[in-house]
Amino acid sequence: MSYQQIVYEVTDYIATVTLNRPEKLNAWTGQMGQEVRAAMAVADADSAVRVIVLTGAGKGFCAGADMSLLTEIVESGGLPDGADHALRHRPSGQENDRVPPDFQGTYSYFPSLSKPVIAAIPGPAVGLGLILALYCDLRFASSEAKFSTAFARRGLIAEYGTAWMLPRLIGLPNALDLLLSARIVGAEEALQLGLVNRVFPAETFLNEVRGYARELAQMVSPRSVAAIKGQVYSALFQTLEQATLASERAMLESLGSEDFKEGVAHFLEKRAPSFTGK
Questions:
Q1: DSSP 8-state class, residue 46
Q2: Residue 108 in contact with residue 162, Cβ under 8 Å?
Q3: How many CA atoms, within 13 angstroms, populate the side-chain half-sphere of residue 1?
Q4: In the predicted model, what is the mean pLDDT of the chain?
Q5: pLDDT more than 90, % of the chain
Q6: Which of 177, 195, 217 is the last residue of a domain?
Q7: Measured between alpha carbons, how far is 216 from 116 in angstroms, rounded to an integer?
């Protein structure tokens, strides 16, 4: 597929999806959304990919929805013709019976991917940009990154499941603080809140992120990663009993896998693993 607003590349089992409108701090458009979703599907289906990194070109991650769309909505008194695809909860024609509806939304589909998605946040992640980061599995920030929900300062609401996801990541009081005030949060405060997993110096940021991604790609079983990721997100809707029973079934399956045999062998032989994902 030819991409106009993103860059897609694969190296060392890592697929990097880069939002590529640096002159606009990678402001989000409907086309960008379609391209990101297509690239994520390609990466998830590619056996040469074990980790996905989502980042932004230039100094920003994503500054939110392109203001030209918001301006057009204000001027027209509603969504302009053809613009609904940029804001629709679940794009038509992309339903998947194997994935819970909760993880088929316009932005909430990242948890349904079998591979870990890392948000590499070099700069502002605001509004829709923050939503993208929330649905990634891990969030690494540059020391220069900044975050804001922005919604309340635009006369909007907590969009696209943010009111559900954000409290689960940083707790109810902190989520209410960020949603109601729409204040700007720096990288260090984001780390303290639990909004991001790690903060790296701006000068070495992408190298640090790629180092972590490379370790995931080379040192852990792709089969285990996919199974554990599925367990964690399924557990959000399960009782403890349901989660325990599901883990017992998954455990029996893993004991018969090639990756389990390799996991034991490389440990006993004191060598690097050579997992196949099977």
A1: -
A2: no
A3: 17
A4: 89
A5: 76
A6: 217
A7: 9
- Rounded alpha-carbon distances, angstroms, from residue 223 to 26, 191, 220, 256: 33, 29, 9, 12
Looking at the structure, tell me whether residues 27 and 109 fall in a common domain: yes
Tell me the per-residue pLDDT of 140-159, one tens digit each, with 9 for 90 and over. 999 999 999 999 998 999 99
Q: How many CB atoms lie within 10 A of CB 271?
A: 9
- The answer to whether residue 242 is domain-embedded is yes
The domain containing residue 229 runs over which residues? 221-268
Q: Residue 248 in contact with residue 237, Cβ under 8 Å?
A: no
Q: How far apart are CA 110 and CA 93, in angstroms?
A: 17
Kindly state the average pLDDT of the residues 117-121. 98
Task: Write down the residue that tokens 């099977």 correspond to.
Answer: 278
Same domain, 71 and 155: yes
Can you tell me the distance from the alpha carbon of 6 to that of 4, in angstroms, rounded to the nearest whole number?
A: 6
* Nearest by Cα to 233 from 125, 100, 68: 100
187 secondary structure, DSSP code:
H
pLDDT at residue 83 greater than cutoff 60: no
Residues 157 and 244 reside in one and the same domain: no
pTM of the predicted protein model: 0.88
Residues 104 and 236 in one domain: no
Give how many domains the chain has, as a whole number: 2
99-103, 144-148, 166-170, 214-218: segment of lowest average pLDDT = 99-103
| Beta strand extents in the chain (DSSP E only) | 6-11, 14-19, 51-56, 117-121, 125-126, 138-142, 146-148, 185-186, 198-200
The residue-averaged pLDDT of 206-219 equals 96
Q: For residue 101, what pLDDT is reported? A: 77
Cα 207 to Cα 195: distance, rounded to the nearest angstrom:
21
pLDDT value at position 91? 46
* Structural domain ending residue among the three candidates 202, 217, 232: 217
